[in-house]
Amino acid sequence: MRLKDKVIIITGAGSGIGKETAILFAKEGATIVVNDLNEESGQQTIDEIHSNNGKALFIQGNVTKTKDVQYLVDEVIKKFGRIDVLFNNAGISGVGQLHEIEPETWEQVFKVNVYGVFLVSKYVIPHMMERRSGAIINMSSCIAEIGLANRASYAATKGAVLSLTKSMQVDYAKYNLRINALMPGTIYTPFVENYISKSPDPEKTISTIKKRQLGEELGKPIDVAYAALYLASDESKFMMGAHIYIDGGVVNGK
Ligand SMILES: NC(=O)c1ccc[n+]([C@@H]2O[C@H](COP(=O)([O-])OP(=O)(O)OC[C@H]3O[C@@H](n4cnc5c(N)ncnc54)[C@H](O)[C@@H]3O)[C@@H](O)[C@H]2O)c1
């Protein structure tokens, strides 16, 4: 039980990496607050956790809406009295070269991926500061570090999250908070499945993705969930402002 009795909010936990992490964290003894825009998929995560005898609560909400975020944080404090860990996981994709991207798309990708991290953290952090205890995990991506075709907006948001993580760590170290980032490579989730299936030649797209990494298989949500587990647990108490690659060697292996 590596997360025994911790109260943990995971945004975007109705699907993919967030869902898998919620299920793993609950098995490790945490009480999970599942946030997602999508009511049905958020409820499915809860049902799966409950069927394993885990503790979880679903609070539907949009990470970019102040009212939703305030409600989320207020409810968690009302019900559990504290927030031990926040996993800023919710995110959306943005495809296209810079000159092709509509300004509205650019804004929307930044809104969810960067503003959403800002907004949820803004309302959670005062509660952590008060208790002088807490860990925040921000979801970046290995493409924050490398160029990738057709991902200008998305890569820029993940670079912003990485740099935000480090500044947050500097500001809140004195309150004993730890802020770290995850840098996944391509992880086979609905997010990636959707991109592959819409590409003109899905087989070719899969083989191009594989060529970027050292390993043969694409990453799985559980691969990222285990890294998140380490950052959420007290085992990582000396990790501050760090970022962890879970990318099959894309960045560091070649
Ligand atoms: N899958 C990958 O290859 C990969 C790689 C690196 C980083 N990431 C990042 O990991 C995170 C999760 O990705 P995934 O692949 O599991 O995606 P996913 O699409 O499977 O899940 C994302 C979830 O976030 C929710 N969501 C979207 N916008 C939201 C909002 N405004 N408010 C609340 N919830 C919202 C969606 O409803 C969905 O359930 C994202 O931040 C993504 O950028 C993914």
TrEMBL record:
This chain's source organism reads Terrihalobacillus insolitus
Q: Belongs to which family?
A: Belongs to the short-chain dehydrogenases/reductases (SDR) family.
The record's annotation in SUPFAM superfamilies points to: NAD(P)-binding Rossmann-fold domains
Q: Which NCBIfam families match?
A: PRK07231.1 (NF005559)
Q: What class of enzyme is it?
A: oxidoreductase
Gene3D superfamilies membership: NAD(P)-binding Rossmann-like Domain
Question: Pfam families recorded for this chain?
Answer: adh_short_C2
Q: What is its EC number?
A: 1.1.1.47
| The protein's name in its UniProt record | Glucose 1-dehydrogenase
Coiled-coil ranges from the UniProt annotation: none
Its signal peptide is none
What's an example GO BP annotation here? bile acid metabolic process
Give UniProt keywords alphabetically: Oxidoreductase
Q: Which domain of life is it from?
A: Bacteria
Q: Which InterPro entries did the record assign?
A: NAD(P)-bd_dom_sf, Sc_DH/Rdtase_CS, SDR_fam
Gene Ontology MF terms: glucose 1-dehydrogenase [NAD(P)+] activity
